[in-house]
Write a structure and sequence with these properties.
The protein is mainly alpha-helical. Helix 2 crosses helix 3. The N and C termini lie far apart (about 60 Å).
Length: about 250
């Protein structure tokens, strides 16, 4: 691969003038290419000094390039400051903000996955059943329990990351009504069950944390959770006033 030719100072000045005064897109492209190595060097330095280990260099490099492009677009050539000084601050800010958002999103995904694993284990806890019909019934209860959990969890600590998927399969307004109906039914549960559902789905607490709050064992919280979802299912399906179907 041929090496990129380094621009001379007069050539770079001419490109800046072309972009600033005439919005010459070719001049912009050449400036971006010229400063790509600078952005990558800053990305490498920030990556070397990272404290968050789970984000790879590709993310740092991507945010650095985006920050550099934004710097090219916003740089004022009339100001008495070098582009590298100006861009350095913007690139660093873009990387740090991007990584922070990336980590927050990953934390939400990890937390959601952990809670879902916990509730699946709770719903699977039951006496051993031998017949095939009992097995199918148990699988149906699990599926319905997970569906109710999905409807409840968006009322709690998470931003709804999945709306753009549901729009492809459901009428968004109808799905929203179903979720609201399920949330209303929570108030009809007995006190302990209502507390467990609210803590787990609305506040995002795991079973161990709920056990500490309610001074019960984690196993007992798991049991109450399973019974609460079963009661939610029965109330939901038997409520003529709601006139809704799962």
């Amino acid at each position: 691969m041929a090496h990129q030719r380094i621009l001379t100072e007069p050539e770079e000045k001419e490109l800046w003038q072309g972009w600033a005064q005439h919005k010459d897109v070719e001049a912009r492209r050449q400036l971006i290419e010229h400063y790509l190595p600078f952005a990558q060097i800053l990305a490498a330095k920030l990556y070397a000094g990272r404290q968050v280990q789970q984000v790879d260099f590709h993310e740092y490099r991507q945010y650095a390039i985006l920050g550099m492009i934004e710097a090219v677009d916003r740089f004022d050539v009339l100001r008495n400051i070098s582009f590298k000084t100006y861009a350095g601050h913007r690139i660093t800010g873009a990387v740090l903000n991007g990584i922070e958002k990336c980590c927050e999103k990953q934390q939400q995904i990890t937390a959601r996955a952990s809670l879902r694993q916990e509730r699946v284990a709770s719903l699977k806890e039951s006496e051993k059943k031998n017949s095939q019909d009992d097995l199918f019934a148990e699988l149906a209860d699990l599926a319905i329990g997970l569906a109710l959990g999905y409807m409840l969890e968006d009322s709690g600590m998470y931003l709804n990351q999945e709306d753009h998927y549901t729009e492809n399969f459901y009428d968004r307004h109808e799905l929203s009504q179903i979720k609201q109906a399920v949330v209303r039914i929570v108030d009809m549960l007995p006190e302990q069950a209502r507390c467990v559902i609210r803590y787990h789905y609305f506040q995002g607490l795991n079973f161990q944390e709920i056990a500490g709050l309610m001074m019960l064992t984690k196993g007992r919280i798991s049991q109450i959770h399973r019974q609460a979802l079963k009661a939610l299912q029965e109330v939901y399906l038997n409520s003529e006033g709601l006139n809704l179907k799962l």
